[in-house]
Amino acid sequence: MNKIAVLVLADSQTHGDMGRIVNALEVAKEFKDGGDEVQIIFDGAGTTWIGKIADPDNQMNPLYEGLKDNIKGACGFCSNAFGVKQQVIKAGIPLLEDYDGHPSIKEVVDAGYQVISF
């Protein structure tokens, strides 16, 4: 069994950014469907996706909902810096502030996860 952490860093401004979030979620789904241990972390500009994909009218919402239990959280510092902290909280996603206000990727690696970033 693999242990995979999908790190979403992609902004939500361009068509290419949309491709990255879809690919991130599809990769997470593939590993989950394969029986692997998966966690998703939103960091940097990637935090801006949560409010968008948590919206039931968003075409990516069903994919997001199917993976919601795999979302470890979103960077607390970046959620605030990008002005989306309230959207993250409203979506019920934990704010990760383990290392200087950011998620600790070292803890993820130390726990045996392979990190894939988008």
Describe this structure in words.
By secondary structure, this protein is α/β, with parallel strands linked by helices. It has a single domain (3-113), classed as DsrEFH-like (Hypothetical Protein Ychn, Chain: A, 3-Layer(aba) Sandwich). 42% of the residues lie in helices and 19% in strands. It is built from six helices and five strands; from the N terminus they run βαβααβααβαβ. It has a five-stranded parallel β-sheet with strand order 4-3-2-1-5. Helix 1 links the parallel strand 1 and strand 2. The longest helix has 19 residues, at 15-33. It is globular, with a radius of gyration of 13 Å.
Main features:
single chain; 118 residues; alpha/beta; Hypothetical Protein Ychn, Chain: A; 5-stranded parallel β-sheet; 42% helix; 19% strand; globular
Please describe the topology of this protein.
Layout: E1 3-8, H1 15-33, E2 37-42, H2 49-53, H3 61-67, E3 71-75, H4 76-81, H5 85-90, E4 95-96, H6 105-110, E5 114-117
Parallel strand pairs: 1-2, 1-5, 2-3, 3-4
